[in-house]
Design goal:
single chain, 299 residues, alpha+beta, Histidine-containing Protein, Chain: A, Lipocalin, 7-stranded antiparallel sheet, 4-stranded mixed sheet, 5 helices, 18 strands, 22% helix
């Protein structure tokens, strides 16, 4: 009987001690210390620059860790400590910042000479404004008695177009145009006329659509003089002799020009408008055009 009583008393004492242990209230200092110790001994957290604060069971982590995994791990460690109610994880990840800095240093590093030599040089586009005059030399001759509306003619740039001293459209760049009006005079009455525009520019292996105003030429009425001689290339569309530095038209056998230094106005023969190969004409852009200058262009 006595032994049973003592056993009962011992059990009650143990129960009271256990309840006392369960009801132990941890101070903020104890909580912070336990959290700090758990994080410090966690082998999965390489960066230990972590500060721990605790207020009424709310733990705040501050400082920095090496990556997002370490940040999550530190928060988990803190939540497992007895007495912790809430974890405020203010840890910053420094690994991404280091990576970004490394990338910036790599980008700032000048390319090797081999890489620089093998990389193609890219030129920025230059916009040729509306109103720019394009001076061209005809490759094909134009005749109001032969050409009709829609016919295409060829030419080359006679005067380079520059931008701030840089050649944007070089001399001899290929151009194409279109006959937009062609009227042949009758046998006894009427007047012949022709109208041309430029439609295409080719240079550096690229083609550009262009829009220009019309170059027009009228033949004289019957009874008027059918040829007009002018000096030295005066007037729009003045013909520069193919024998004095002509372009592609000279290569196809156009024998034009009335001698060195003398220009001949586009001739009206029998009231027809005839503009020979090698004639220099001028067109004005009606709309701006963006050009990718060739790296090899020069004056």
């Amino acid at each position: 009987m006595v032994s049973k009583r003592w056993c009962l008393i011992a059990a009650m004492v143990l129960l009271i001690l256990g309840l006392g242990a369960c009801s132990h209230t941890y101070s903020d200092a104890e909580i912070a210390g336990e959290v700090q110790n758990k994080i410090a001994t966690d082998p999965n957290i390489a960066t230990k620059q972590v500060s721990v604060g605790a207020t009424n069971g709310v733990v705040t982590l501050s400082g920095s860790v090496g990556n997002e995994l370490e940040r999550t791990r530190a928060g988990t460690d803190a939540a497992q400590v007895a007495g912790v109610k809430t974890v405020v994880n203010n840890l910053e990840v420094t690994h991404s910042e280091a990576t970004a800095a490394s990338s910036l240093r790599h980008e700032a590093r000048p390319p090797s000479r081999r890489a620089a030599s093998s990389s193609p040089r890219v030129s920025s586009a230059v916009t040729i404004p509306e109103g720019t005059v394009l001076s061209i030399r005809l490759v094909d001759s134009i005749d109001s008695n032969k050409n009709k509306e829609g016919d295409v003619f060829r030419g080359t740039i006679e005067s380079p177009v520059t931008d701030g001293g840089r050649v944007v459209i070089p001399k001899y760049a290929d151009v194409e145009g279109e006959v937009v009006q062609s009227k042949s005079a009758g046998h006894f009455t009427g007047r012949s006329d022709i109208a041309l525009v430029l439609t295409r520019l080719e240079m550096g292996g690229k083609a550009y659509s262009i829009d220009t105003d019309e170059y027009t030429q009228e033949g004289s009425s019957r009874g008027k003089r059918t040829a007009e001689i002018v000096g030295g290339g005066a007037g729009a569309g003045a013909l520069i002799g193919g024998l004095t530095g002509g372009g592609k038209g000279a290569l196809i056998g156009a024998a034009v020009g009335a001698g060195a230094g003398t220009g001949v106005q586009a001739v009206t023969h029998g009231q027809q408008v005839h503009i020979p190969s090698e004639t220099v004409l001028q067109f004005r852009l009606k709309a701006p055009v963006a050009i990718q200058p060739s790296s090899g262009t020069r004056r």
